[in-house]
Design goal:
Helix content is 29%, strand content 29%. The protein is α+β, with helices and mostly antiparallel strands. It has a single domain (13-159), classed as Glutaredoxin. Strand 8 (128-133) and strand 9 (136-142) form a beta hairpin. The protein is globular and about 40 Å long. The two termini are 26 Å apart.
Length: 160
Amino acid sequence: MTIKVGDRLPSTQLVKATENGPEAVSSDEFFKGRKVALVAVPGAFTPTCSARHLPGFLDKAEELKAKGVDEIAFTSVNDAFVMGAWSKANEAAGKVTMLADGNGEFAREVGLTMDGSKFGMGERSQRYSMLVNDGVVEQLNVEQPGAFEVSSAEHLLGQL
């Protein structure tokens, strides 16, 4: 079942990419008591994700925070080392938190997976953005396969 607006995020474990290495994070604790812009991408370092999606949120980070977003987080079915390298390559530290969903558990639990086998990627997360307030989904913007329209920073800003 796909998560929808008004639903509480599932309890799963993610791995936060930090400068000191991987750090296990409970989804319950990460989203508790604050407003988080959560963005999911099919893969770190993939073309649209690196050229458009992450840069848009880096550019709009201050505007999102000025509108009440406490944290911006990106998740992908990649390991924490890849997510950490992606953060470093894009100078995202301090603006965007990288949350690795290495086994795809979070993506499966929210019902937003895709089959990337045709490209040698296996099961991945669909591309989406959501606004999560104290663990509850307030906005959900899921892209159609191959599209990049409704999950952008600009679109999410317009919903705040």
